[in-house]
Amino acid sequence: MKKKRIIPVLLLRNGWLVQSKGFRRYQNIGNPVTSVQRFSEWASDELIYLDISRGDMVYDRRRDDTGHPNRSSLLEIVEDVARHTFMPITVGGGIRTLTDIEMRLAKGADKIAINTAAISDPHFIEAAALEFGSQCVVVSIDANRSDGSLTVMADGGRQSTGRSAKEWAAEVESRGAGEILINSIDRDGMKTGYDMELLAQVVDAVRVPVIALGGVGEWMHFAEALEHTGVDAVAAANIFHYSDQSVFLARKFLYDKGLPVRQPALFEIGDKP
Question: What is the DSSP pairing of strand 89-92 with strand 111-114?
Answer without folding.
Answer: parallel
